Amino acid sequence: MSGSGSPAVRYARVDGLNLAYQVVGDGPLDLILLDEWATPLEARWDVPAIAGRLDRLASFARLISFDKRGTGLSDGSDEEVATPELWVRDVVAVADAVGTERAVLFGTHEGGPIALLHAASLPDRTSAVVLANTGPRMTSTDGWPHGVDPGLWRPDLDGIVDLWARGTGGESHIAATAHDPWWRNWYARSRRQQASPKAGLALMRMLGELDVRHIAPSVHAPTLILHRRGNTWWPLGGARWLAGQIEGAELVELDGADNYWWSGDADVIVDHIERFLLGAHVPRASPRELVTIMFTDLVNSTATASDLGDSRWRELLDRHDSLTVDAIQRQGGRPLKNLGDGFLVQFDGPAAAIRAAQQLRRELTASDLPIRIAIHTGEVERRGDDISGIAVHLAARLLEVAGPGEIVVSDVIRGLVAGSPIRFQPRGTHEFKGLPDRWGVHEVVDDA
């Protein structure tokens, strides 16, 4: 394929946007490549080092790759910044467009967290996961020493413009050829092709906040983790930690420092992927899945009902139910239980849950119905139309922290909505009766 130029570019539709994608090969399995956002979809075929490795993947799989929303040949939204939740929607849209119901996800750089989030939340659509030079979080923070110093990951617009113009700062991405002027020029050119300086700045800031550590144990697909020991963007300790969190995951430590999976001695990476995917891997069936859970609660409902009387209270409760269901369904949520003075709700992602909560808070406050809301993302077990598990109990316990008119979320949520305009106020760490560990809690402080 590399000798005949770039494959045809097609477009899939999602959320009113057009996503550019390519399909190469006709192997026995579908492999969706979630590469670094700055690697061009079309122009990469002009680089032999990249095209040759893509051809090898396509020799044993149907290779599906695309530009994520807001990058390269794909549309971006003026209203909404790309977030991990939306990029998972992009994966689903492209998979639907090419007719694949179940695929292997190959994630590198920021594609790794997206692959993990997809595998945990959509297990029926994930046959296996391959991760190369990535991890659950890029920057170091309290309790996470396996990341880049945050002080080195606070880009400003002047620095981005310089990087886009000269390619300086990308040496560790292509360590094997760091002193080659051609590669530095390609590094800068690839970023110019994929995003404007302002869009690149927003993307890099989002990557610094992206955090999927809490959902790693919810990945049950067969998983291969490939990591170069000298990688400085994603330190090896993160890959080792991840391998310990995903049941049955295989970790292969490789020589070298290149961050790009296709740079340096990349043939050994493709060798391991081929061996892993063409081996006798049987997907592990699991009744568990990752969902976002929301509990709502009318404040002082018992006292209010007593003061108003049965008839007036029933009118207000009917209005509460109608407004709640409408706000939930507008954001794609699913009411699971009417609890009398509140609801248990399931969403596919946390940003949608927060938008629904903000709408609900506005409308119920205007109707003199003070409400408090708690949101958490975690693994649940489904029993018919009901869900159960520690995640459900934690979401319910979060309501104890919320006051009238407040929306509180677990620390998990904050890492999953990285890049969005949603703002949070820390509410400290809390212990909840009957639940392990201490949990960070945040309040949603304004509307997006």
What does this structure look like?
With 448 residues, the protein is of the alpha/beta class. It has 2 domains: 2-278, Rossmann fold (3-Layer(aba) Sandwich); 288-444, Nucleotide cyclase, GGDEF domain (Alpha-Beta Plaits), CATH 3.30.70. The protein is built from 13 helices and 16 strands. The chain has helices at 48-58, 84-98, 111-121, 157-166, 181-194, 197-209, 236-245, 267-278, 301-308, 310-330, 350-366, 390-398, 411-416; strands spanning 10-14, 17-24, 30-34, 62-66, 103-108, 126-132, 223-228, 250-254, 288-298, 334-338, 343-347, 371-383, 386-388, 407-410, 424-430, 439-444. An 8-stranded mixed sheet has the order 1-2-4-3-5-6-7-8, sandwiched between helices. Strands 9, 10, 11, 12, 13, 14, 15 and 16 form an 8-stranded mixed sheet that branches. Strand 12 and strand 13 form a beta hairpin. The protein is elongated, with a radius of gyration of 23 Å. The chain starts with 9 loop residues before the first strand and ends with a strand. The mean pLDDT is 88.
Distance between the termini: 45 Å
Q: CATH topology of the largest domain, anyone? A: Rossmann fold
CATH class of the largest domain: Alpha Beta
Q: What would the principal axes of the Cα set say about the shape?
A: elongated
Total DSSP helices: 13
Task: Kindly report the spatial arrangement of strands forming the biggest sheet.
Answer: 1-2-4-3-5-6-7-8
